Amino acid sequence: QVQLVESGGGLVQAGGSLRLSCAASGDIFSPNAMGWYRQAPGKQRELVAVITSGDRINYGDSVKGRFTISRDSAKNTVYLQMNSLNSEDTAVYYCNVYWSLGRVYDYWGQGTQVTVSS
Questions:
Q1: Lower Cβ count inside 10 Å, N or C end of the chain?
Q2: Distance (Å, whole) CA 98 – CA 35
């Protein structure tokens, strides 16, 4: 069983910064991809950023240049540094770990709320 525990969400003013962390535990296969997705009220879940074991990174268009994803593979932990936050970044942020080994293994955290006040 795999568990993902997110931390670091909260309330921040527009223009401010937050850092999210997600620690994964359990039977995790490597190589894998760890990432962040978000879902705002009334909207579909969308990609924020994903990073692979080989440090290949992909960002959602709306966060490019403002957010930075990183990982500590030894600790199975992924981080998301969020700068220049605006009200459109308000959402529940979910951590994800994914790998393919015969079949797809796809696990999600419980989500952490990020609220940006204008």
A1: N
A2: 9
